[in-house]
Every structure is written in C-alpha cells, then in structure tokens.
C-alpha cells in the first residue's frame, strides 16, 4: 500500500487501517448484539422449539455448561482464561503492521464471540445455545468464533501461497 498524506497529515495507510478496524468492530458488535438478543429470547421461552427439519435443523434452547460439543470443563477456569485469550488476541492484532481486512475481521469475530459467551458464563453460569444443527446446539457467538477462525486460516493459506 502506497503511503500518502491527506489534509490532516495522516498517512493513507493509517486511515485505511482505522477504517478496517472500525468496520470490523461494527460488524462484530452487531453480531454480538444479535447473539445476546437471540439468547435472551431463548432464555425467556425455554420450552419453545421450531424445526425446519425435525430434530435436524431449527430452534431449540439448551443451557450449555461445557465447552464445544458440550464437553465438560470447569466454568471458573473458562471465566479466568477467556479474558486472557481475548487480551492476547487483541495485543496480537495491535502488533500487526498492516493487517488485511479479513485478518482483522477474523480476530474481532473471535473476540466478540468469546465476549458474548463469556458474558453468559458470568451472568448465568453457562452459555445459552439455541440453533440445532444435526446433533449439536450452538449459538451465533459459536458461529462467529468458527467464522473468525476460518478467515484466519484462509488468510494464512493465502499468505503462504504468496510466499511459495
């Protein structure tokens, strides 16, 4: 990216980096808000269920005290270590000289998804899941974390392919 200055003396690359951060924060924040609203709806109506394909795809409330795939894990450890992981990801992102928009979005989707699930763990002792997909019940925060990880893997693959 070529560096030029605008009227305020800011480098164009710095301004672009801020725009990428802003857009990624807004999109991730919108997903976090949507996830919290869906979790509220699920907790408010725990007996409600709706299926597009019965028992395969639909809406079903589940209070998940474990981690992925409901694997048991001490809630206190998750409450302690999740903020450390979030902080580590934010520090890692801040150290990047010119991260791509997909790299930035990937990190922030993971962070905001983790914040949403952490909020549940602190307030309710478990995450609130509501989307049934085959044999799992997940939430939008889980999807954000997976999508963020997929973006990071795609960016790494693209970077590695460029170098070879």
Secondary structure topology:
Elements: H1 12-44, E1 49-53, E2 57-64, H2 75-94, H3 101-124, E3 127-133, E4 136-138, H4 140-163
Antiparallel strand pairs: 1-2, 2-3, 3-4
Give a verbal description of the structure.
It contains 4 helices and 4 strands, in the order αββααββα. Helix content is 62%, strand content 14%. With 164 residues, the protein is α+β, with helices and mostly antiparallel strands. The chain has a 4-stranded antiparallel beta sheet with strand order 1-2-3-4. Helix 1 runs parallel beside helix 3, helix 2 runs antiparallel to helix 3 and helix 3 packs antiparallel against helix 4. It has one domain.
Using brief descriptors, characterize the structure shown:
62% helix; single chain; disordered N terminus; 164 residues; four-stranded antiparallel beta sheet; alpha+beta; 4 strands
Strand content bin: 5-15%
Helix content range? 55-70%
Overall form:
globular
Low-confidence stretches: 1-6
- Biggest β-sheet description: 4 strands, antiparallel
Mean pLDDT reading: 90
Per DSSP E runs of 2 or more residues, the count of β-strands stands at 4
| Structural domain count | 1
Distance between the terminal alpha carbons, to the nearest Å?
21 Å
Main-sheet strand order equals: 1-2-3-4
H-E string:
HEEHHEEH
Radius of gyration: 19 Å
Helical stretch tally: 4
| SSE-based structural type | alpha+beta
């Amino acid at each position: 990216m070529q560096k030029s200055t605008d009227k305020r003396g800011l480098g164009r690359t710095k301004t672009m980096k801020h725009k990428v951060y802003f857009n990624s924060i807004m999109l991730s924040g919108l997903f976090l808000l949507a996830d919290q609203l869906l979790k509220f709806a699920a907790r408010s109506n725990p007996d409600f269920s709706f299926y597009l394909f019965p028992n395969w795809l639909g809406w079903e409330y589940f209070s998940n005290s474990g981690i992925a795939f409901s694997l048991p894990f001490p809630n206190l450890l998750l409450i302690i270590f999740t903020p450390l992981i979030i902080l580590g990801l934010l520090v890692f992102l801040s150290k990047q000289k010119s991260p791509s928009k997909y790299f930035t979005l990937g990190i922030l989707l993971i962070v905001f998804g983790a914040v949403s699930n952490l909020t549940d763990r602190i307030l309710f002792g478990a995450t609130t899941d509501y989307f049934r997909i085959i044999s799992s019940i997940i939430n939008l925060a889980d999807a954000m974390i997976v999508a963020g990880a997929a973006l990071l893997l795609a960016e790494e693959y693209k970077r590695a392919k460029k170098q070879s």
